[in-house]
Amino acid sequence: MSENVLLEASQLSRQFAGKTAVDNVSFNVKQGEVVGFLGPNGAGKSTTMRMLSGNLAPDHGEIHINGIDLLDYPRQAKAHIGYLPEAPPLYREHTVREFLQFCARLNQIDKKQHKAAVDTAIERCGLREVQQRLIGNLSKGYQQRVGIAQAIIHSPSVVILDEPTSGLDPIQIREIRQLIRDIADKHSVILSTHILPEVQMLCDRVQIISQGQLLFNDNIDKLGEQMQASTLLVEFEKPLQTALLQRLDGIERIDSLSDKRYRLHYQPHHNPTQSLLRRAVEDDWQLTLMMPEQHSLEDVFMKVIQKEEVDV
User: Helix (H, G, I), strand (E, B), or coil: what is residue 8?
Assistant: First the structure.
């Protein structure tokens, strides 16, 4: 992945009627990166997206798009931004090709390049078979594709997608997710979503915002590490004294779930799996189940927005 930073936001803040919606948020997005922007309703996601796209001025802070100051040079900076709001800005009475031709003019693409730009957007977004159909007659999934096509028609450096799979059926969601991954090959993508599995599938990095503050900003692997719980679920053919399990190295606590099933809590980086297997074989404990447990992504998300540390 390139280290070329295409979007940089510094100390963004915004208030509405004296209430802080976004509070001193800073981050950057590199070329070829998909960044997931997560948060509960009212967290400040949409306000941040609107500021990044140039549709809302921050009360404080700076935004640079491909090195251009968005506040000082909005026209030049916006030429490097593609934006898909939650409700795609589509003209339902146009055909797909007519609408994208209109978008090419709006984005001031050279007239000689209009056809090539429209053809490329149609091809990349899988719209060839419906390019002559009225947008109003298309399925929600195809309308979303048209929305993405208008966002990338001018080959922007940064593409901002606000809830791009909202309201789609499972097949359409899968297709749009693949399209987003394809787009990321040539653009940086900021993806605002409330669908947590979508973040795991699509994103290289995750940002979690709550009450206007950025609480988590790291790569998807770090989020995965927080999902790893330091517990083992074990079961035996016959009841076993918990005192025997307690003697295993690293065991901190044992929950008795039944007379044969236990949850073993162990010290981080001191996994007792090997010693447990060895003792089970040597002493004929008749081990029938041993399963590492994980925090769900929802658990991690809730812990982060509640400003608590995940017990790992």
Answer: strand
What are 171's two structure tokens?
């097949």
> Residue 286 CB: number of other CB atoms within 10 A?
12
SS3 of residue 106 by DSSP: helix
pLDDT tens, position by position, 233-272: 999 999 999 999 999 988 989 999 998 999 999 887 788 9
3-state secondary structure of 55: coil
Q: Is the dihedral of CA 230, 234, 239, 243 positive or negative?
A: negative
For β-strands 188-192 and 158-162, DSSP reports them as parallel
Neighbour tally for 307: CB within 10 Å: 10
Contact between residue 44 and residue 21 where contact means Cβ atoms under 8 Å apart: yes
Closest CA to 123 of 151, 153, 143: 153
User: What's the pTM value of the predicted model, to 2 decimals?
Assistant: 0.76
Helix (H, G, I), strand (E, B) or coil at 52: helix
pLDDT digits (tens, 9 = 90+) for 155-174: 999 999 988 998 889 998 99
Coil, helix or strand for 22?
Answer: strand
Residues of the chain with CATH 3.40.50.300: 5-224
Compute the distance between CA of residue 162 and CA of residue 311 in angstroms, rounded to an integer.
Answer: 32
**Sign of the alpha-carbon dihedral angle for 99, 103, 104, 105:** positive
Architecture of the 5-224 domain: 3-Layer(aba) Sandwich (3.40)
Whether the CB-CB separation of 231 and 268 falls below 8 Å is answered with no
215 in Cβ contact with 304 (< 8 Å): yes
Residue 227: pLDDT above 80? no
Asked if residue 230 lies in contact with residue 311, where contact means CB atoms within 8 angstroms, the answer is: yes
Q: Tell me yes or no: is domain 225-305 CATH 3.30.70.
A: yes
62-72 pLDDT, tens digit per residue, is 999 999 999 99
253: left (phi over 0), alpha (psi -120 to 50) or beta: beta
